[in-house]
Predict the structure.
Amino acid sequence: MYKSLLRLGLGLTFTLLMVPKGFAVQPAPINQDASVSWSSVINDPFDGRVVYDKNFGDGFAFVSSWSMQGIRATYTTYWSTVVGYRTVWRTRTVSDGHNKRREVNYPVQEPIYESRSRKESPQAILFAISGQVYTYEGGSVTPELATALSNAPRGNMRIRLRWADGRTTDLEIGAGTVESWKSIFRVTAAASEPAISEPKK
């Protein structure tokens, strides 16, 4: 029974997809294991010019895509839970009291862990750039936000994810991706400027 439970426990991985009601930011089109050029501008047949970014640490992975059509993001949380126990036999050396030592076997209960994960997309993404806070809540990137992103200071940028239940999570976008924003969003920013008509003669 324990062997069967061990095979069951070690062989299963559960993934929960959390899509809160009224979510605004769409899930990222790729995962953290995708074979793409991270933090570099690429041409995607569906999204056009886009840059992919990932940030991962102990128990989480954050993947995002950045294009003129919109910002998409997925935050994955990883953890393990105990689903049962198995008996393993170990050996120890004991003395019989007459200067003789012998090895004895004894049982130990070991936990069986099951890996799990949960994927979420935030309600909004907040940026603090040059003393001003910008909020992205889905759809095409606004000219105002595009201008801010294309002129963001060099280096890593801390962003804030806001969830549907009011929670917030702060994390960083890599310097390479921030640099790529200058190419991705400069076109949007330029295109949004009103045309200057020539005065009639």
In short: Residues 4 and 136 are 49 Å apart (CA to CA). Helices lie at 2-11, 143-150, 175-184, 186-191.
